[in-house]
Amino acid sequence: MGSKMPSHHAVAVRLSAARKGNKTTQYWKSLPLSLLGVWIMVAACIAMYICGCLNAVVMERRKEVLVSLCDERARMLQDQFAVSVNHVHALAILVSTFHHHKHPSAIDQETFAVYTARTAFERPLLSGVAYAKRVLHSEREKFEKQQGWTIKTMKREPSSVQDEYAPVIFTQKTVSYLESLDMMSGEEDGENILRARESGKAVLTSPFRLLESNHLGVVLTFPVYYSGLSPDATVDDRIKSTAGYLGGAFDVESLVKNLLRQLSGNQAIVVNVYDVTNSSEPLIMYGSLDSGGDMSLAHVSLLDFGDPFRKHHMSCRYYQKPSIPWSTITTSVGIFVIAVLVGYITYAAVTHIAKVEDAFRKMEELKVRAEDAGVAKSEFLATVSHEIRTPMNGVLGMLSMLLDTNLDSNQKDYAKTAQVCGKALITLINEVLDRAKVESGKIELEEVPFDVRSALDDVLSVFSAKSRGKGIELAVFVSEKVPEIIIGDPGRFRQIITNLVGNSVKFTERGHIFVQVHMAEHRKHVLDVMAEVDSKRGTGVDIISGGSPFTTLSGFEAADNRNCWETFKLLVSEDQYCMATDEASDYVSLTVSVEDTGIGIPLHAQDRVFTPFMQADSSTSRNYGGTGIGLSISKCLVELMSGQISFLSRPLIGSTFTFTAVFKRCEKNAITDLKRPLSEALPSGLKGMRAIVVDKRPLRGAITKYHLQRLGIWAEVVSSIKLAFGSLSQQNGCSKPGVGREIILIEKEIWLSEHVLDWKSNVKSFKLPKLILLATSADSDKAKAAGFDRVIMKPLRASTIAACLQQVLGLKDEKPQGKEAIKNSGVLHTLLFEKNILVVDDNSVNRKVAAGALKKYGARVECVGSGKDALALLKLPHKFDACFMDVQMPEMDGFEATRRIRIMESNANEDLSNGGSAAEGSNEVKYHLPILAMTADVIHATYEKCRECGMDAYVSKPFDEEQLYQAAAKFFESKSIPNS
Fold this sequence. Notes:
Elements: H1 5-29, H2 33-100, H3 109-118, E1 126-133, E2 135-136, H4 140-147, E3 164-165, E4 168-171, H5 187-199, E5 203-204, E6 208-209, E7 216-225, H6 235-241, E8 242-250, H7 252-262, E9 269-275, E10 283-286, E11 298-303, E12 312-318, H8 326-403, H9 409-440, E13 448-451, H10 452-470, E14 473-478, E15 485-488, H11 490-507, E16 512-519, H12 520-537, H13 565-572, E17 587-596, H14 630-640, E18 645-650, E19 654-665, H15 668-672, E20 690-694, H16 698-710, E21 714-718, H17 721-733, E22 743-747, H18 748-753, H19 756-762, E23 770-775, H20 780-785, E24 790-793, H21 798-809, H22 818-823, E25 836-840, H23 844-855, E26 860-864, H24 867-873, E27 882-886, H25 894-913, E28 931-935, H26 940-949, E29 953-956, H27 961-969, H28 973-976
Parallel strand pairs: 14-16, 20-21, 20-22, 22-23, 23-24, 25-26, 25-27, 27-28, 28-29
Antiparallel strand pairs: 1-4, 1-8, 2-3, 5-7, 6-7, 7-8, 9-10, 9-12, 11-12, 13-15, 15-19, 16-17, 17-19, 18-19
Helix pairs in contact: 1-8, 2-8, 8-9, 8-23, 9-14, 10-11, 11-14, 23-27, 24-25
């Protein structure tokens, strides 16, 4: 019941959620109409807010555009002004170099006028340039005689007496009217001249009306010195070295007009240029204050004309006021309309929700119950299988004990039949339990090292009797490229192959069943090569020497034509098609195929092969039984191994199931560190022997050769007895060593078609080797009469071949030394002799079965029916050497009893370590009783719980006597086996 509580609790939670949804629907159902009006008011407020936000975005964008346009114009005006200033500076340097530093002067009025006229295009912003020479009063008379005119003031009157003058001597033709005018006579011009020569930089005048054009403009003045001055020259040094002044007149009004005319969008904004040197009384240089435009939005961009004394800026505003934001209005109105519609639709939907509320609630409850039904089914299957295992343990145990008594032949046959049926029922229960684990997601995989070849040998041993009874070939081949040891779950790996081979044995009446294991990448490469070859040469049928049109294991046609002798040769070839295995990889990907020549799967049933509890033939008169869940479980296990499973089936031809699985690679040093071998060691005394296999089917001969090579025997495959004896005669002629230990293995088909005795009588030149017959079923007497020394029954396994050859050749069995010798000897079964074992189980039949099985090995067994009784007997000191503990018992279960036992032992060990003495009659320095769990619950979680509470091992019901012995004996091996 405890395991079911979580699922029921989950159902209750989900049903509660469904009921809460129902209450919510009832609330919406009672929503008053007034809330709809409130919603409309809220929607109106939201629409107005959005309208304001959008309008603010539009205005911000409008402002950004104005800023961009104004800054662009200011930057262009400033750049063009700077270019003109540089050219004026260049003229000043020109005058200083060629007029004052060159004697005689290279510049006169005519030269200056021509030069400035030709270079006027470089100064498009200047209306003209002029050069005024600095003349002291003492030099005035001489200067006027040289020039031929009198120095005049800006009003064109003769200049009055003053300390120095700045008469214009060179002019551009456009400003020729300035010639002979004293620039010092103008109040602002005189101040600019004084500032220019003192600072050594260009200076600007404030805006004024130019003489000819009457436009607003400014004059730029550069000082001209006699010789170069150092950067740290004083003001007096500059004044003394001043030779004159070069000035240029800027028509600012024309300049800005030309600039705006060149730019796009010049009609979009109003531009004003100001001189703001006196911030309280700014002087307008371009534009007028009453030019109109949108006065609500303006932007000011700073201008730098190179004179730090004077400050200028450009003011911009739009010509037109912003238009009505229709897009903003329509967007806001649209949002309002949508909100109103949403509110109305929501209100209208409440009515519809109320109508379907009951149906929805019922559907939700049914959904929850349906989801829980799957979990309940899995729990039910697990519980039923657990409950069935307990009585089945008693049935099989009692049958085993019954078979040990004196029975007549009929009674023994009845008991064995009942035992076989009971084991079949346990197999069915295991399948149902696996399916329950699959559906509940509780199935887990182990990761332990195991031998692939040994695992497949185990599968062969399970089906050997059935295959012999039907007379079909059952064979296994594992590629040499597959590592000897890999890490994975050997039990689940065997289960997959057992399910596939079991189905093949069940549905195959003639032909063969062939299991192959290859490296996945290598097999894929070979199949790709074969597909390419087939596409080039076209499809065809190869005829082999046996006369059969199919190069398969038995000569019967198989469902997958790729699994033929030609493909197999490439898979085992070590030549050009051999692919090196990736030893550096941590994982091994294997491909396993199970091929049979059975009845195949009907086409209509192939799409549901992996569906649980589905069968191709579901009629009551079907020839083949089964639950139909083996393939479903296999598919799940393959997917857990990171692989895929598929099949190819042709009705009345056969089926080939193929799956891939990924395992971890086992390191070489880890293999040598294993405490015990993972499989039965093959004898080494046969290594170096030579064998000849006579088989007309090359694929079957290759399989026989594979098993011989596992024993270290060199094998050769020939197709007839004649070739075999011919090969022997050639070897004897060469007198090779080891010839006397050669053997010939002949297939039954060859024996039936050729006369072995005739060949033996004809060959007298050398001693004949031992002859061994290979057959699925044969009469030993007839085989001996035909000249054979021995018959090996198929399916072939390396261990059975080794045992047969040892007997035929008279070789002694290799006895392992040390611990292995004791393990494999009869001493092993005496490990439990006179051992005191306690069996704790609330079921009297289970106690009787366990006691009977253990007593067979000489153990002294005592049984109790509860955990409390077990605690009373196991109080320290006690006489018991081991304990089998049932897990589920009333009053006190096995988990709690084990916990308390471990606490008692821990306290006693702590006392001993603290200097206490061992209890009387106890020779042990440390208390630890081996406790083995007995339960019908084989879920992995139960096993983990057993470990957590302190149990040492785990025995699942139903158990047999060998299983109980192996579980208990491993705790006494170290005491019975001497160190080697």
